Amino acid sequence: MKIPKEDLTGIIDSTALQQKLQAIAEKNGGDGSSPKARTQVLKLLKQAMADGRAVVEKRLGEDGGGLKCARRMSHLQDELIRLTFDFALAHVYRVEIRSAAERLMVAAVGGYGRGTLAPGSDVDLLFVLPYKQTPWGEQVVEYILYMLWDLGLKVGHATRNIDECVRLSRSDMTIRTAILEARRICGDKPLFNELLERFNAEVVEGTSSDFIEAKLAERDTRHRRQGVSRYLVEPNIKEGKGGLRDLNTLFWIAKYHYQVREQSGLVRKGVLSRSEYNLFVKCEDFLWAVRCHLHFLTGRPEERLSFDVQREIAIRLGYTQHPGMKDVERFMKHYFLVAKDVGDLTRIFCAALEDQHVKEPLGQHIGHQIGGFVRRLRGGRPLNAARPVEGHPAFEVENNRLNAISDTVFKDDPVNLIRIFQIADKNGCNLHPELTRLIRRSLKLVDSGVRRDPEANRLFVAILTSRNTPEKTLRKMNETGVLGRFVPDFGKVVAMMQFNMYHHFTVDEHLIRSIGVLHEIERGDSGEDHPLSTDMIKTLQNRKVLFVAMFLHDIAKGRPEDHSIAGARIARKLCPRFGLTAAETETVSWLIEHHLDMSTVAQSRDLSDRKTINDFAQVVQSMERLKLLLILTVADIRAVGPGVFNGWKGQLLRTLYYECELHLTGGHTRISHSQTVEHAKQSLLENLKDWPEAERESYLNRHYKAYWLRTDPERLLAHAELFRKTDATGEQLSFQVTPHAFEGVTEVTVLAPDHPRLLSAIAGACYVTGANIVDAQIDTTTDGFALDTIFVSRELPDDADEHRRGERIADLIRKALSGEVPLPAQTQRKNTLKSRVKAFKVEADVLVNNSWSDEYTVLEVSGLDRAGLLYDLTRCISTLNLNIGSAHISTFGERVVDVFYVTDLTGQKIANIGRQEIMRERLAEAVDGKLDLSASASVSR
Q1: Which range has the worst mean pLDDT, 625-629, 663-667, 880-884?
Q2: Which of 97, 405, 574, 866 has its Cα between 20 and 30 A from that of 295?
Q3: Which residues contact 720 (CB under 8 A, 6 or more apart)?
Q4: Starting at the edge strand that comes first in sequence, how are the strands of the sheet with 387-389 ordered?
Q5: Where is this region: Uridylyltransferase (predicted)?
């Protein structure tokens, strides 16, 4: 894409600057090398650069042209270098008659060589000499480089003669690529022409296969480093999959293999159609616009579209908010659609390369079988002849790639647009690039008739529930556009981003990945992560409803209403079309409507509270639904992104499952509270046989009923030993640290005299050490002690190291409780917010609920996560004269949900409406960091 010369006017007036530079030299007696002259030259060029950049940024805001901006920046840089070069030759290192060796050419290489430059990019230069370096050449190069450095530019440079350029290009692919894109800026033109001629003749000729191999391997390595998905919600616009570097790679290969100088030459060569070329330019222009805005906004060469800049970029690009979608989400959806188009262009280009010059496939994944591709490019013969697909004569397989016999295969029977993917899944084949092209051209055939067709829907459900590779097949259906056409509600979430830190992928990618995770669980590949779901999936009566619900669970994202309720409504419409019975449809819609319930209850409710289990069981109602919901919940969390699902969440889900299972199977009705308490006591006594009888009886009487009901046998024994050790030493304060590798947490138990601010002090100590509390259980004894157990996120892989870390946390808690170390009086919210979190606005919300527990008032506090938040909340609760029975901490990206089970100081629920309102106000202020807790003022009513 060339920019008219008139579009470059007004950026820098080279003629006027040339005259001013001449005047500077004349004022200094014609000597431009003096320090005074150099200072004046630098000042002049620096001002010209600043003015030029301001013009470029202004025009970017006016016309939005990304490529125009990049070329304007390149033009500005070219002129600054030319002016510096000419001034050096004319006024600093003048040579009346230069020898043949005293010639010099300055070329732009890399992206700058293509005539595009981002505002914060490096300036890559190649200084080319005819022979060896001369003192004159060395001085000129040094003058130019120091001037550019003093202008504040980051310059990548090399000085070589032509022989060195040719020799190094043969052995170094990076240098070869740089010279491939070399563009003369100034200096000796014959020297540049000689370099190109020798480069083409001595380096390029006959080496296409080596170059393609290296570039594709380089691309795959880059993708692995940046993240293999192009749908990451904080993408790298330069290096990420679907970014500018992918387009660069295509053009490098095209330029090297097809010997074209411009992208438009690919149309003449028949590599791209005119529409595909236009798409290439459109994608490149959009990515350049985003990149240039990003550099101007941040003032540095930032390439990652992080959360803290996405909204501002969206505003700069003119995106507005629509119902159900924020401006930033609309912008990012456009970005991901462009990244998808870049992937399409990659496949189209490689198919053309193959068809015109190879006549053999590149393998299952381009670049992953490069060796075989290169051998074929060098003249190898086909390994497998084409053969028709058994039972489907309209299709054939060649080298494990599926293709159509005729271009009318989809017109003849539009259902083939679904059938082809079922065939590919069943036979483990990839789609031939030409077949992919044909599918794209035939998308309009997927109309309401195909959507209603029973065979098409049967085939789709077969793909969705396949035991082969459903994730891969669904992703290919999505990339070709078939999935969004066949299921229009899915099409609405394609490339949709949710502007939060919790979800790592776009909605469509998350849904497809969740099917892949479900498939892994079914195959038994996820036993270590969550063995219960692996066991339960084998016992399901109907696996189809699970896979359909998984595919649809987030399909209503981006709508003004709750996506769970809207999704259930969509399921009731789609499931009959998919061939599900009324009962199956009801189960699917129920799963979608309640797909967040199990995660919410497990992570933010007290699972030892009987009412929590009763209420959840009333929602679930059957063991089959409980199994389905458990498996769906595990797969959903794991598909959110790497590291989101952990052992602690898995343990909470298992606990909720087993407790609910007891209820649904009648376990709670058969055993009374008193029987459960008595059973727990007797089990502990069996393990305390070496204790004196009186000591055992005395210990049993130290705990209230609630303790025996919610503490597992292993912890009962550990706590008993802790109490005995503390009593023996006569100390008032004791600790126990237990790392849990599988759950990914470390348990720290604190035995201390009971005090309303005990948990607050523990939270403060953890805040100081940087430990992240994920759960807390508080028990009190009949003789005035508190037994507080906190669970902190594990940081170290080795148990011994993690135990020492836990001991350090415990030691700081000890010092804080004894007054040796003062805890901070107030956490500074603005200093503790991470930059990524600052991009989000989460309104503080406080719920006071007396119906979730029979014994406690439950406070659910949500807001923007920050360091020290739990410390502030627990201190606030203590100033409200409330006792905390248990605390449950859940973090969803930038949003935190902390739930506290509290009573007043007499052990009663808080029923007074006025007091509840004060609690809401104070806690909301604490979330926002606006509540002054330094005085620890007491508020009661």
Answers
A1: 663-667
A2: 866
A3: 684, 687, 688, 699
A4: 387-389, 392-398, 401-404, 430-431
A5: 1-382
pTM (two decimals): 0.76
Instruction: Kindly give the residue spans of alpha helices, DSSP state H, lying in 299-326.
Output: 307-316
DSSP assignment of 15-66: HHHHHHHHHHHHHTTT-TTSHHHHHHHHHHHHHHHHHHHHHHHHHHHHH--H
Cα–Cα distance list, 357 to 201, 212, 258, 353, 525 (Å) = 20, 13, 10, 6, 41
Q: Which amino acid is present at 420? A: I
Cβ atoms of residues 645 and 678 within 8 Å:
no
Is residue 67 within 8 Å of 288, Cβ to Cβ?
Answer: yes
- Cβ proximity of 79 and 14 under 8 Å: yes
> Which tens digits make up the pLDDT trace of 333-380?
899 889 888 888 887 777 666 655 444 444 333 433 333 444 344 444
Decide: 195 and 116 in contact? Cβ < 8 Å.
Answer: no
What gap in Å lies between CA 41 and CA 44, rounded to an integer? Answer: 5
Say if CB 776 and CB 766 are below 8 A apart: no
- Residue pair 802/819 in contact (Cβ under 8 Å)? The answer is no
Residue 801 clears pLDDT 70, i.e. is over it: yes
As beta bridge partners, residue 127 has 106, 159
Query: Can you give the pLDDT at residue 451?
Result: 96
Token pair of 382 as six digits: 């086909």
Residues ≥6 apart with Cβ < 8 Å to 507: 493, 496, 497, 498, 554, 557, 558
For residue 641, give the amino acid letter: G
Write the DSSP symbol of residue 432: P
Q: What is the mean pLDDT of the chain?
A: 86
Is 630:536 a contact under the CB 8 Å cutoff?
yes
Using CA atoms, how far apart are residues 284 and 295, in angstroms rounded to an integer? 16
Out of 3.90.180.10, 3.40.1790.10, 3.30.460.10, 2.30.30.40, select the CATH number for domain 5-205. Answer: 3.30.460.10
Q: What pLDDT, in 10s, does the model give residues 853-866?
A: 998 999 999 988 88
Cβ count within 10 A of residue 228: 10
Q: Calculate Rg over the CA atoms of the chain.
A: 34
Beta strands 123-129; 155-161: pairing state: parallel
Task: Give phi and psi for 80, each to the nearest 5.
Answer: -65, -40
Which part of the chain is CATH 3.30.460.10? 5-205
- The total number of residues shown for the chain amounts to 941
Q: How far apart are CA 553 and CA 510, in angstroms?
A: 10
| Strand 773-780 with 882-892, pairing | antiparallel
Per the DSSP assignment, residues forming a β-bridge with 734 are 751
pLDDT at residue 107, rounded to an integer: 96
Cβ-defined contacts of 133-142 (< 8 Å, 24+): 133/159, 133/161, 134/99, 134/101, 134/102, 136/93, 136/95, 136/98, 136/102, 137/101, 137/102, 137/104, 139/92, 139/93, 140/85, 140/88, 140/89, 140/92, 140/93, 140/104, 141/104
Q: How confident is the model at residue 322 (pLDDT cuts 50, 70, 90)?
A: confident
| Residue range 663-677: mean pLDDT, rounded | 67
Mean pLDDT value of segment 906-924: 93
pLDDT tens-digit profile of 555-605?
A: 999 888 899 999 999 999 999 999 999 999 999 999 999 999 999 999 888
Residues 920 and 846: beta-carbon distance below 8 Å: yes
CB-CB neighbours of 594 under 10 Å: 19
